[in-house]
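Give me structure tokens for this 500-residue protein.
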Amino acid sequence: MPLLTGRLPFSPPTPGAVAPVLHIMGIGGTAMAALAGMLKDAGYTVTGSDTGVYPPMSTYLESLGIPVMIGYNAENIAASRPGGAPDLVIVGNVIRAEYAEAQALLASNLLYCSFPQLLGAMFLGERQSIVVAGTHGKTTTTSLIAQLLDHVMPVGKKPGFLVGGLAKNFDRTARLGDGPHFVIEGDEYDTAFFDKGPKFLHYRPKTAIITSVEFDHADIYRDLDHVKESFRKLVSIVPAAAAGGRIVARWDHDNVADVCQGALVEAGPEIRRYGPGQQWDGRIEAVDTARGTQRFVVLRDGNVYGRFESILVGEYNLYNQVAAVAALDAEGITAEQLVPAFASFLGVKRRQEVVGEVRQVTVLDDFAHHPTAVDVTLSGLRLRFGNRRIWAIFEPRSATSRRAVFQEAYAHAFSQADVVVVAHPHDQARIAVDERFDSERLIRKLREQGKEAFAFNSVEEIVAAVAANALPHDVVAVLSNGAFGGIHGKLLAALEPVAR
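Here you go.
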């Protein structure tokens, strides 16, 4: 059961040669599907397994011709290469050691590794790795930087990227690229069952962007200090300024400034501070509620650096964009080059994404699940849609939101919504009863604030309530980090006019 260390034991495929077979356990996750696409682009034969795969990752893998075996069964390893065995097995962090497929792997002599380990070894190398880390804003900022670079760099120097979401400009989550830059979403979640360190420590950052540091992932982190430990480790591996190392940090956030203290040394990386009142700042000039765009100014040392317009609306998106400008300015890209690049950005699926409009009711999908993310997402929607009535339909699905750790915080996260609907939490079987999030308790708190709020036990009940009560011009925002029982399509179908 050899764990991969150092270099890969095989060379990249060449035309006419038999391609090495790489099998991915947990292929349905966003990052894992992205890796699968990159490996396919590089010429490898790729197979995978998962308990279930749903759009957009299922359609993405299908478009690449990558077969997916359902269930983590012991026979998957052999089935990935009939008559032989895969050359390498890549183990996702959703895989538990007790799974039958994992046990079969450990009992074999096959080479295996984690996804972040393979990414660092195979694709990053000497490239200019721009790692976007933080509790919030990673996916949007990573996608934005990838598009900005793609727009300004000439053919033959296009960036590689890996995003924890489906970037609409590319209609994919990852690309090898052929230029010096690789932009990657730096996740602080653990790497694999055999490597409990954070993923981003494998990503060899030349530039690290840190958007925020809060307590999250309550299933693997004890408390905020434990989270900070991981971010301090990330800061510690950024090279010195003399070697091109750079940290772009949201300095008005105390936790971000705290984890960056170790870099404030003479031989440390360059520090670019951004946020209100910092070296890199910004302000919103106007929001077009009809077009859903925002015009904004980026300031450098109090002076206007550039004026831009994009579809990213809200103060938190303003500063995600300021971070992108600060990072790319250091790469020699000018404000003049960035103006049309910002205008070209199409956004990310599941980030304030309009999935349909029926009877003048707009239905959106968003990944927000942490209370801070819920708050800033709804604030952005309020700015974007003005006085239209906003429904927030929230599914407590993530490892943190299913726990009571943020029970009270959620009571203040829905202030910008007019109507709040909370689903029954996703599977809480592994959580102690006294540690579980309580939807009914949240609803009582919201009603005490005068908020119109409801809790339901099923998707069908939620759909029926919204369909019966939604009015023309309402905005229905679905907030979940999972499939939520296909609620988006069910809502749109239920809102269809009925012949009377």
